[in-house]
């Protein structure tokens, strides 16, 4: 199960562009916590701390505890607005998550033991159709990822969601079909041609070099210099 990260926050008394701008000048990012039929709460978080959590990956599928003084809120990040030039966060939205809530969330997919796939050994390609799959899940049951081993999978093999051993308490949002998550595809013409092109490029260079052990052709014998004509 996922580790819950705590983010320190401060309460904000007012909303508005001017207040938000003043908050950013202090090195903090304005934000809001909403949901669970409660009044939205205005907050700010330290810019560097928020950016560090965003850079860890899976930011929108990780549980956080936001600590506002002695009060805490369990939340999911739902939106981050970025500066159009610097790409730094300028506003963040968090959704409250109740103990008995069932949330809709994307979970990363990992393909393991790729070295044991006969198809990949033959030059096949892992074609990932879905890097993440959306699930309904209770907050305490959110897994870090779902994974499957590629051992024994040959070219042409399709990997459907039913092949995954899912943790208890989660259900795919798509229920009307056994959708494809990945395939082992045959190499493309470009990938097949690349080794041949490399071999063809190396052939002229190899042909230009003398074969190992071969003797160099003898140089043509020099003609003797002509004798000067006798004086009469």
Q: What's the short version?
A:
Part of the 50S ribosomal subunit; part of the 5S rRNA/L5/L18/L25 subcomplex. Contacts the 5S rRNA. Binds to the 5S rRNA independently of L5 and L18. The protein is an alpha+beta fold.
Q: What can you see in these coordinates?
A:
The protein is α+β, with helices and mostly antiparallel strands and 232 residues long. It has two domains: 5-96, Ribosomal Protein L25, Chain P (Beta Barrel), CATH 2.40.240; 103-189, RNA Polymerase Alpha Subunit, Chain A, domain 2 (Beta Complex), CATH 2.170.120. Helices cover 18% and strands 37% of the residues. It has a six-stranded mixed barrel. Strands 10-7-9-12 form a four-stranded mixed beta sheet, with no helix packed on it. The longest helix has 20 residues, at 189-208.
Mean pLDDT, to the nearest integer, reads 84
The SSE string, one letter per element, is EHEEHEEEEHEEEEEEH
Instruction: Name the beta content range.
Output: 35-45%
Distance between the termini: 117 Å
CATH superfamily heading of the largest domain: Ribosomal Protein L25, Chain P
Question: In one word, what is the shape?
Answer: elongated
- What can be said about the biggest beta sheet? 6 strands, mixed, barrel
User: What name is given to the CATH topology of the largest domain?
Assistant: Ribosomal Protein L25, Chain P
- What gyration radius follows from the Cα positions, in whole Å? 33 Å
* Contiguous helical run count: 4
As residue ranges, the low-confidence spans are none
Tell me the count of domains. Answer: 2
**Class computed from helices, strands and strand pairing:** alpha+beta
């Amino acid at each position: 199960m996922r580790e819950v990260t705590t983010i320190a926050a401060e309460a904000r008394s007012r909303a508005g562009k001017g207040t938000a701008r003043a908050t950013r000048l202090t090195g903090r990012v304005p934000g809001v916590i909403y949901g669970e039929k409660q009044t939205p709460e205005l907050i700010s978080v330290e810019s560097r701390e928020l950016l560090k959590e965003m850079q860890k990956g899976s930011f929108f599928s990780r549980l956080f505890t936001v600590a506002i003084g002695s009060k805490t809120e369990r939340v999911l990040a739902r939106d981050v607005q970025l500066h159009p030039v610097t790409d730094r966060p300028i506003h963040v939205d968090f959704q409250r998550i109740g103990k008995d809530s069932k949330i809709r969330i994307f979970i990363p997919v990992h393909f393991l033991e790729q070295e044991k796939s006969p198809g990949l050994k033959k030059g096949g390609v892992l074609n990932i159709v879905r890097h993440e799959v959306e699930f309904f899940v209770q907050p305490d049951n959110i897994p870090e990822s779902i994974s499957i081993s590629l051992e024994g999978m040959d070219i042409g093999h399709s990997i459907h969601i039913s092949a995954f051993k899912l943790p208890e308490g989660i259900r795919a949002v798509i229920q009307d079909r056994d959708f494809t998550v990945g395939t082992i595809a045959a190499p493309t013409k470009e990938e097949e041609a690349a080794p041949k092109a490399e071999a063809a490029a190396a052939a002229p260079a190899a042909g230009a070099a003398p074969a190992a052990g071969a003797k160099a052709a003898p140089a043509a014998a020099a003609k003797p210099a002509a004798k000067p004509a006798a004086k009469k």
